[in-house]
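tool=predict chain=A
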Amino acid sequence: MSLLKKRKLESGGGERGVTNEEEDGGGRKAAPQSPGSRKQERDQLYYDCYSDVTVHEEMIADRVRTDAYRLGIQRNCPALRGKTVLDVGAGTGILSIFCAQAGARRVYAVEASAIWQQAREVVRLNGLEDQVHVLPGPVETVELPEQVDAIVSEWMGYGLLHESMLSSVLHARAKWLKEGGLLLPASAELFVAPISDQMLEWRVGFWSQVKQQYGVDMSCLESFATRCLMSHSEIVVQGLSGEDVLARPQRFARLDLARPGLEQELEAGVRGRFRCSSFGSAPMHGFAVWFQVTFPGGDSEKPLVLSTSPFHPATHWKQALLYLNEPVQVEQDTDISGEITMLPSQDNPRRLRVLLRYKVGDQEEKTKDFAMED
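tool=predict ok
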């Protein structure tokens, strides 16, 4: 999404950063907003972010993501053939069309952003108007003519839970999915691992190389660069490689989308503990968080996993990085432990907040509070 639109989403502000106020030259204060109107405004700004083609280009161009959905749907052809499907957050409609190609009798493609108009054109271009019905509006307010046999949705945000779209899927599950109906994907898992960020190390070390290149010693800026790059509380979205990972990844949470009470768990915070030992000697810069989702395998196939791990092919989700305030040197078998909690931000529930408690070796336990920013 564009930087301008993303800033609007994060801040919850309008076009000029003010709400419920007109320019009248008299300095009149803005009328206070009710919680309901603030939520409605935040939601609309969120939907507006998906009205631009750029974000859809990025998602569909992600071959790992799009092929996983295509294959996950194909493997469930027997369960979809002749059945009804609800696509939550259909975007440009490609997942709905995959379901129709798998034999679904009717697909309800629900999309709250203005991109629904382009989705309808795509459906028409592919000659699927009789099978795929594009319905504009949030899934929380759209009315379907029937219960559905399956729900498909690409709801995952950065760090899995940024944007809070999973709550919409769970709402649709409770209201529209038949008992025992199919969920695509059916579950998600979250992983955490300590990292040594080689790119960050290079950026900090750059200041010691200036003298060699230009004859001016600027090595004194290394500590300043470290503070600028690490001491913030932002969740950094960045791609890593397996070489950046310092210890065996730890799964700290599993979300079964059919599990009753999952909505309440998300509101309270997805929490889990971890403990691992470092592989060798390196500067530890923080932790990386990533996820995987699993599609049922159908009658005979094994389940299909879409992973955003740094050990797997890259996706547009990359990894969510949680930097310490400064590097910590670890040696082989240094014990690293802690607890991580992922929950909606208090000022904007669509923003992801992460509370991290950690201990490295013999150092005292520390905490850090992170949020997804621009």
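DSSP finds eleven helices and 15 strands in the chain. The chain has two domains: 53-154, 188-372.
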